[in-house]
Amino acid sequence: MNTAGYNIEEYIKELASKTPVPGGGGASAVAGALSAALSSMVCNLTIGKKSFAAVEEDIKNILSDMNKHMESFIKLSDKDAQAFYPLSQAYSFKPQNEEEKALHEANMEKLLFDAAIVPLDIMKEANSMLNSIDFLAKKGSKLAISDAGVAVGLLRSAVCGAMMNVVINVKYMKDRDIAQRLLDEASEILEDTMNKSDIIYREVLEVLL
């Protein structure tokens, strides 16, 4: 699947279908891309305004970073599909003997690990945007402060959604040490993102009210 090759209507219809990909992981990455896109819009509405001259260079740097985040999320959406599809096919494989069973179990372990790593990367990518969105909400154009609020809401959704995909995949891994390491890392990112994003969202809402 190539997310970049879909228009939004096609993507939503494909997401709604019974095909295994795209799924929740890819949708989480798209939420992250939308968050970065809205953050870029706040930047573009701020740059060039005299009243924001003091922070213009900071905003330009954030804009450059957000463009990179958008590209990364689109790639991660595709990587999620590439990682999950073979796993979805492997679930239906029925080993016929002990040798096939051993090979299947080893293959499943690798596929589950790969399918957990991509959403973990989505979580990391999204979490790394928090400080920038917070800056935009406080220092960016007041005409776009609601967009900064939507951006942080989408970022939170991206992380929460990706967390589900980490959990569902590590749950079935045989190597519980690796599974727990991945889960601990994801849980730490989740808690940090939820706490910080909730603060930013509420601060934006209070300004709007």
Describe this structure in words.
By secondary structure, the chain is mainly alpha-helical. It has seven helices and no strands. Helix 2 runs antiparallel to helix 3. The longest helix is centred in the middle third of the chain and has 35 residues, at 56-90. The protein is elongated, with a radius of gyration of 19 Å.
Brief summary of the model shown:
With 209 residues, the protein is an all-alpha fold.
- Strand content is under 5%
Question: Runs with pLDDT <50, length 5+?
Answer: none
Backbone CA Rg: 19 Å
Major β-sheet annotation: none
Class per helix and strand makeup: mainly alpha
Give the helices and strands as they follow along the chain: HHHHHHH
Query: Which whole number gives the mean pLDDT?
Result: 94
Shape assignment = elongated
Number of strands: 0
Distance between the termini: 42 Å
Overall helicity: over 70%
Count up the helices: 7
Give the quaternary arrangement of the chains: single chain
Describe how the helices and strands are arranged:
Layout lengths: L7 H9 L7 H23 L9 H35 L7 H30 L2 H10 L5 H26 L5 H33 L1
Helix pairs in contact: 2-3, 2-4, 2-6, 3-4, 4-6, 4-7, 5-6, 5-7, 6-7
Please describe the structure with a list of short key phrases separated by commas or semicolons:
mainly alpha
